[in-house]
Amino acid sequence: MRRSYRWMGCTALVLVMLPAGQAAATIVGSKHDMSSGGGQTVRSVTENEICVFCHTPHNASPSVPLWNRQMSTATYTPYTSSALNVTPGQPTGASKLCLSCHDGTIALGNVLNKTTDVSMTYKTMADIPGPQAGYIGIDLSDDHPISFKPQDSIDAGDTSIQLPGGTDAVKLDANGEMQCTSCHDAHEPGTGTSSPFLVMDDVDTGVGGQICLICHSVSGWALSVHEGDGTDYTRGSDTRTVAEWGCRICHDPHTADIHPTMLDEDTSADPDKWEDEEVCYNCHKSGGAASADIETEIGKSANHPLADYPNLLGSDADIHDVMEGRSPGTEHVECVDCHSPHQARSGTHSAPGNSASNVLEGVTGVSANYGSVGAWASPSFGTASPVTYEYEVCFRCHSTDSSMFAGLAKGRVDIQFNPDNRSHHAVIEQGENQSGSIANNYVIPFMPSSTVYCSDCHGSNSTTGPAGPHGSTNSYIMAGSSESTTNVCFKCHKASIYRDGGAGSRVDHPLNTGHTDDDMSGSNQGNAWGIWCMNCHGGGEAGGIHGTNAGLGPDGGTSPLGDHFMNGAAITGFTEGSWASAKKDIVSIECWSKGTADSVTSCDQGHSGRSVDPNFNY
User: Fold this and answer.
1) Which tens digit of pLDDT belongs to each residue from 200-224?
2) Rounded Cα distance, 343 and 358, in Å
3) Which residue range is the domain that position 510 belongs to?
4) How many domains is the chain built from?
5) Which of 135, 138, 161 is nearest to 81 (CA)?
6) In the chain, at which end, N or C, are there fewer CB atoms within 10 A of the end residue's CB?
7) Does the global pTM surpass 0.70?
């Protein structure tokens, strides 16, 4: 008779608490069924009642609903992030009830209506061996924030948060606060994408993250490459498409690896560091779900040094801050400095041009205004949100708007690309020489009138590698070309004109055994850039190939060195000759070899050993 009464009482109690239409029996056999007959790893050794571990009809605590547990007296570490305009305090309301088991500080069998603790297979959640999804602990900094009012964050200017509607499954409590029960229903374990104990199915028409999008307004997500990716991705024993995983392909609402952004790193990551790139490497690695293997590219000898800037747990080391301005104030580089994972779309740039491609969608960068045409001036800067041109992403760090590389050549690329320089690669505006007579000197589709991307020259040494300046075996992340794995110049400038030495060649010596673009080790040809062309063009200083305003060389000549990028490594001066033997002879040129990349004071003349001071007039 007692057994019959237990089931009747428990059923009546649970039916009061559950939403209409949700079956009370669903808790039976779930992880919240800790009775001796529940079949769970965490269970009672002696107690066969189900509801008693949370509820009692008599002698309950003042907390509703008829709570049968003590409240923890622990002091919790709340979640904090620069992206949240409010600071959550200690847990309140229903979250305190959940934490009376899930923080691991109170025995699971410690219930109010028993004089002694119920005997359990494990005393507390903290005692269960191995990683447990249900063990939250008292450090809540790695969990979705609770016990705060989203309206307060909205009132403080947060446009990325919205309140759930009256018909939404996600609910705030009576005080307007976000609690564990906003997203979780302790009596409905769910199956498939509605687990674990969620108030709704997280997937709709093959797209995950539905429960998150009730409160989070994510600009551009519906068109992003991640939102619609049908590639399978396996986490643990669960395989879904990237689209079905939704937000959880990167984020973890509980025990996240990187706390402020609630991100999950790749399983190979150092557990003692926060490393943003390791989140991307979950997919963007050899054999990963993404087609672009970025991890391998970053591992090459020249790269954007993502791994150089981890956040050592408990330190003030720098990682990307989601709220940082257009130019990072401290030196670091992470994937999200150049890409918006919520807005990036499929498709890299198509040459020629300089417009930002789909993979840069939604990124904030730095715009540059160079003033009146023909009047050389340092640029003024503005915020490009989002970027229109690819170089505006690069200018976040590689410009005088940023203090990251102050005093270094790589920190003043905006000066080097100034459209009013005597020569400049056409990253910002068309180049200086628009003569139709040189159209045949370019590799299609490039022409004299073309603009170009930074990533046309900086990228993988492999022509089949992922697009973008991630990494290369060539110095300075220089890309290769179909003509040469080391000489990127031949991506735009025809090798038959500028290298091979045949009829119509612009040089009177081909790159033969004495001058080869793939072997810079021979005499009279080596330079710090590893590109033979830069013995004569743009090699006189770090970034000289971007643009130059150099005047006359120290040995005179009739034209400024900058007129034809003749700030080589190095050129003493030059005089244009006349056409002869189908070749344009340049006289009074000396080949120089540069010793150290950032040194512009010691250029050794290749043929005579004579030294001069290079000429740069910015």
Assistant:
1) 999 888 899 999 999 999 999 999 9
2) 9
3) 498-618
4) 1
5) 161
6) N
7) yes
